């Protein structure tokens, strides 16, 4: 325990992070001492909590390249998300060890029989520790939060991060530049077609072009036709806003046209928070045009709050793969279902008779990690600094892509030849976490945040131009334009931004343009409107809290 708390105290200390960490330790000890009356047992509980926080913080940093914050606890507290941990042996073993420690401490905690005098001392020490800790935490929070926010991304003091992020509210970005000079009220669109296209949007789990990996001899990689499908209307590199995990962040962008990064410390919890405060989304726009919205998923509805999020965004029906004949429980994530089977189910749902156009959103799963090292494989390294273990993991990953590629291209062809007008968009939600150190074959910035997308529109003959890099936030407006659905003010603005910045959002070289765009959508249009600024459940309501600027 001492090592954990000392490590937190010593990491880039300021007077306020030190005070905050000590205060949390003090109040935590008081709570457990009040419960147990035993100082050793109380320290044991703190040790357990410290190890648990370290596990969560390490896991988030490994998979999502970010550190644990208060809002993340909503994800980790969701029992439906625990199943994912079971697929990672080391993390599962550590979690099991912590459970054993928990049971042991529970045995030591209960059944305490003390005299009245001891109970009196116990009550005094406990309440004094709690009061002192809360007071110190409030002082640290008030005086140190703004300084902490400057270094939030770089900080790994778990305790300070949780304390300082316990009360962060979303504030819309603003700009001093008048946005109207960049965003006129009307732009040219495809208009409102009499026969609107059916829409299929497919999230391809952990999928990107492995030929971007520097260090792998490209001659030994298989040709993955799905990356550059012969049936595509357009395709290209896609900028996403998460790496190695955080699927819901890409879902959020693809279904709304907003970047999760714009929501500051709430970025990792948009499916638990932001979706309930949006004024528009892809699905709500489609429903206004008469569409029926159907989700086909191998995920349980409880996983990362996806069921509630989908319904908040406008989904009419959520179909679990077990509803379509796959063996398993609807309350479980189905990990091993092949991508080809998912696509077959999408065809089945799409071929049903509807009295209106239909939009189907589907997710694949087979490409998800972990990726155990494959010993006998055909891949070769073209650089000596690439280890055999990493190359073996890449080989395992490439095998999964190769298994899916043929089925994906067949589905592209089926869409292209379908009699009903149909628009298909499939995209990779993020790159897999492969532990790769060989770098990338690209000149684009932040290559680890690049996947691929493909659009098939059977009403368009030939290929259309695509930008060298397209941000995922522009997919909804692209879909609406191809489907012939009126865009509305928000997606008109989004489409204009896509053209003005050549498909880029975070990468837009014109910072004034980016600020103007954010001012237009968040301030003028109030696309994300939050009725309350303070989380009523936050402990920090006990403190007198200054105004907190938005974290960017």
Largest sheet: 8 strands, mixed
Q: Strand percentage, roughly?
A: 5-15%
Task: Name the CATH superfamily classification of the largest domain.
Answer: Alkaline Phosphatase, subunit A
Low-pLDDT sequence parts: 532-552
Strand order of the largest sheet: 4-3-5-1-6-7-2-8
The CATH topology label of the largest domain is Alkaline Phosphatase, subunit A
| Helix content range | 40-55%
> What is the rounded distance between the termini?
33 Å
The helix-strand sequence is HHHHHHHHEEHHEHEHEHEEEHHH
Mean pLDDT: 82
CATH architecture of the largest domain: 3-Layer(aba) Sandwich
The Cα radius of gyration reads 25 Å
Number of H- or I-type helical stretches:
16
| CATH class division of the largest domain | Alpha Beta
Query: So what's the overall shape?
Result: globular
Question: What class would the helix/strand composition place it in?
Answer: alpha/beta
> How many domain modules?
2
Polypeptide structure, described:
Helices cover 42% and strands 9% of the residues. The chain has 552 residues and is of the alpha/beta class. The protein has two domains: 2-169 and 536-542, no CATH class; 179-204 and 229-368 and 414-429 and 436-524, Alkaline Phosphatase, subunit A. An eight-stranded mixed sheet has the order 4-3-5-1-6-7-2-8, with helices on both faces. Helix 11 links the parallel strand 3 (292-297) and strand 4. Helix 1 (2-10) runs antiparallel to helix 2 and helix 14 packs across helix 15 (488-500). The longest helix has 35 residues, at 116-150.
